[in-house]
Amino acid sequence: GAGVSQSPSNKVTEKGKDVELRCDPISGHTALYWYRQSLGQGLEFLIYFQGNSAPDKSGLPSDRFSAERTGGSVSTLTIQRTQQEDSAVYLCASSPPLAGIKTQYFGPGTRLLVL
Amino acid sequence: AQKVTQAQTEISVVEKEDVTLDCVYETRDTTYYLFWYKQPPSGELVFLIRRNSFDEQNEISGRYSWNFQKSTSSFNFTITASQVVDSAVYFCALSAHNTGTASKLTFGTGTRLQVTL
Asked: Contact, A11 vs A19, CB < 8 A?
């Protein structure tokens, strides 16, 4: 079946603008995760959803970052008033229902560049 | 707190050589999962293997093998007879084993493997 998809694949924005990144998980996967990969910080966890709720949002770096998930499927990560340090690749992953295997499968990422 | 250390930043080998990528982890959890992911130049993280902390049996899959040693908190990855297509960044990761809830991955900093002809 189809894997995790993310859009856009690339996004260039100006400092101070808001951006929305979208993730479409693998069908039937109940858990969804956002990570960020940057040169200085490596791969960092941002937030995870179980269904539509977010039990762990401890990795969100500031209140400019928010995420939501609707219908237990698509998720949107929003960054408000972007800063240059937000430039990174934003990765989304999903994993099957809890009773099953907890392996996370990743999408291709959204490369964000803030000028 | 959880921590994963991949001390090897970059490794270069000639094709057909064997290569081992090291991974050392720290966790206070009594049960946990360990993972290896491959990130080729295309950028997508590809799942390779998952190991449960209560299962120390080593695993072999084709040219890949994994050596899990709980006593030394290590989960090393060996590629036998390396090929150019193995060139990628390899990440070791750790997650807690929580029943009833999912768990985030804690990643190491990755090891870049370059295989040349």
From this structure: yes
Q: Say how far residue A61 (Cα) sits from the centre of its chain.
A: 13
Query: How far, in Å, CA of A9 to CA of A14, rounded?
Result: 17
User: What are the per-10-residue average pLDDT scores of chain A (115 residues)?
Assistant: 91 98 94 92 91 91 95 95 97 81 89 97
- Name the closest residue on chain B to residue A32, using Cα atoms: B102
10-residue mean pLDDT series, chain B (117 residues): 94 97 94 93 91 82 92 95 97 83 88 96
d(CA A114, CA A16): 9
Q: Which amino acid is at A22?
A: R
How many CA within 13 A on the CB side of residue B46?
11
Which residues of chain A does B95 touch, with a Cβ-Cβ cutoff of 8 Å? 102
Residues 34-93 of A with CB under 8 A from B: 35, 42-43, 45, 48, 50, 55-56, 59, 89, 91, 93
